[in-house]
């Protein structure tokens, strides 16, 4: 049956049917076209729900009856007692109304305390909620940790979005972000939250973090917040609840919000909204942890993908150069006013109004390429410096870039390869020393010789005071074996 047929046969509104479906009381099948197919059993369950709800039996009790954890006859017996009490309460309420009417009182001179005391006396020894006014307030969620964890997940999602944008659009190396950059990222994440969260609240009545933990925000009449209302609420959360993410002040605001929640006080930004909690089922925690794991895995994948060069497989010289320059920019290696052109030669940059400062004054190595069938099979460079009275810096960075530009393109290198780290460590620990190692079918060889120098800070050679002659030579090469 279609939902239209079920509406006709049950006399229920479509919204009621959908509600009971969300509550798990009926489970219609899905057809290939996406529409629901309601069975006769679904219809009978809906009719039973309609009857029992008409008798004021609660939804929780109906669920228990359907699951078999409660007996219908016992439930009906208790309901009869409850309805009998409500009948007595309603009769007493009529008596109070007549008494007030008999005194010809107006609202201005009504002695409410006298009648409230009478009601209180009549309610002694009963658990009736007939005279309670607890339903006359906007529902609020007073679970500080649940609310806090929902907020943490949302901010983490916005931060993940920003990190992905930095990595995939602006080619920023996420692995080298320092404390200042991380602090800046946190403020940008809050700015993203300011504009995206109102959209979630308007469209879905919740956010990803809140949905995971069963939280929902709406207007008192059940309507979703408008974007403007969501924006106003989110701005209040950021300022009053999070202290604009300013250190120390942020902590003070969080502690204040925690105290309000513990004392069952409505947060300032929630005074005009209905904040509800669907349930606290155990699986929500599992989904919450799983969602965090997925987001972290996504960030790790993005970070690992950044380690791969733009060109893979067999490389032309121009493609090798593109890889080389990509890694130089990615790792923040500056070559002053020179760059490697598409032919693999060092040339001066065109003047762009900026001053290029090169701290390490070293001779740029001339790269030699071994070509087979139009593709690079090996790269090498040699350096020889005699009678130099200046400091010499190691060529570790050049060797590292050449190695990554070529080795990173090999098919053996996967998304989560540790190749860049291994190559970097091997070159780093052999500064001013000979070495030979193999990675991804490539042999890396370096032969170094120097005299009249001494090593300082592991990467610098300075002329010895008594040296009459100085000499330095380096020969580096990498060659693919097949």
TrEMBL record:
Topology within the bilayer: Multi-pass membrane protein
Subcellular localization: Membrane
Location of the HTH merR-type domain: 1-68
Keywords of this entry: Coiled coil, DNA-binding, Membrane, Transcription, Transcription regulation, Transmembrane, Transmembrane helix
GO MF annotation: an example: DNA binding
Transmembrane segments: 155-175, 187-206, 285-305
Coiled-coil residue windows: 59-86
A GO-annotated cellular component: membrane
InterPro entries: DNA-bd_dom_put_sf (IPR009061), MerR-type_HTH_dom (IPR000551), MerR_fam (IPR047057), RDD (IPR010432)
Protein name: MerR family transcriptional regulator
Native organism: Alkaliphilus serpentinus
């Amino acid at each position: 049956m279609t939902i239209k047929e079920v509406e006709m046969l049950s006399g229920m509104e479509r919204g009621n049917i959908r509600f009971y479906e969300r509550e798990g009381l009926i489970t219609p099948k899905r057809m290939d076209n996406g529409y629901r197919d309601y069975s006769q059993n679904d219809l009978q369950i809906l009719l039973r729900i309609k009857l029992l709800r008409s008798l004021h039996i609660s939804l929780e009790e109906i669920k228990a009856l359907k699951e078999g954890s409660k007996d219908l006859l016992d439930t009906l017996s208790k309901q009869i007692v409850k309805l009998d009490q409500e009948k007595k309460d309603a009769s007493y309420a009529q008596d109070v109304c007549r008494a007030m009417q008999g005194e010809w009182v107006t609202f201005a001179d009504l002695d409410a305390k006298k009648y409230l005391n009478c009601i209180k006396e009549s309610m002694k020894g009963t658990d009736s909620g007939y005279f309670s006014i607890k339903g006359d307030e906007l529902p609020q969620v007073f679970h500080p940790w649940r609310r806090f964890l929902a907020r943490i997940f949302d901010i983490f999602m916005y931060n993940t979005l920003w990190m992905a944008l930095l990595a995939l659009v602006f080619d920023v190396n996420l692995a080298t972000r320092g404390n200042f950059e991380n602090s800046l990222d946190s403020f940008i994440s809050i700015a993203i939250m300011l504009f995206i969260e109102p959209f979630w609240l308007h469209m879905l009545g919740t956010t990803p973090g809140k949905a995971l933990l069963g939280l929902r925000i709406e207007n008192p009449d059940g309507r979703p917040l408008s974007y403007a209302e969501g924006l106003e609420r989110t701005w209040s959360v950021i300022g009053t609840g999070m202290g604009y993410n300013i250190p120390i002040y942020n902590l003070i605001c969080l502690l204040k919000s925690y105290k309000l929640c513990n004392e069952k006080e409505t947060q300032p930004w929630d005074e005009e909204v209905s904040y509800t909690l669907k349930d606290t089922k155990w699986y929500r925690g599992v989904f919450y942890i799983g969602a965090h794991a997925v987001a972290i895995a996504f960030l790790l994948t993005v970070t690992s993908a950044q380690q791969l060069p733009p060109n893979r497989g067999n490389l032309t010289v121009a493609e090798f150069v593109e890889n080389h320059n990509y890694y130089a920019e990615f790792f923040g290696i500056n070559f002053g006013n020179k760059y490697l052109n598409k032919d693999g030669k060092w040339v001066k940059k065109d003047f762009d109004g900026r001053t290029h400062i090169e701290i390490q004054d070293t001779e740029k190595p001339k790269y030699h390429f071994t070509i087979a069938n139009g593709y690079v099979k090996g790269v090498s460079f040699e350096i020889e410096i005699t009678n130099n009275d200046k400091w010499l810096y190691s060529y570790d960075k050049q060797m590292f870039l050449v190695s990554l530009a070529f080795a990173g393109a090999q098919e053996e290198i996967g998304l989560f390869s540790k190749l860049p780290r291994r190559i970097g460590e091997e070159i780093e620990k052999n500064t001013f020393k000979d070495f030979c190692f193999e990675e991804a079918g490539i042999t890396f060889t370096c032969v170094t010789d120097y005299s009249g120098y001494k090593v300082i800070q592991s990467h610098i050679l300075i002329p010895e005071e008594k040296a009459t002659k100085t000499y330095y030579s380096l020969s580096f090469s990498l060659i693919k074996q097949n």
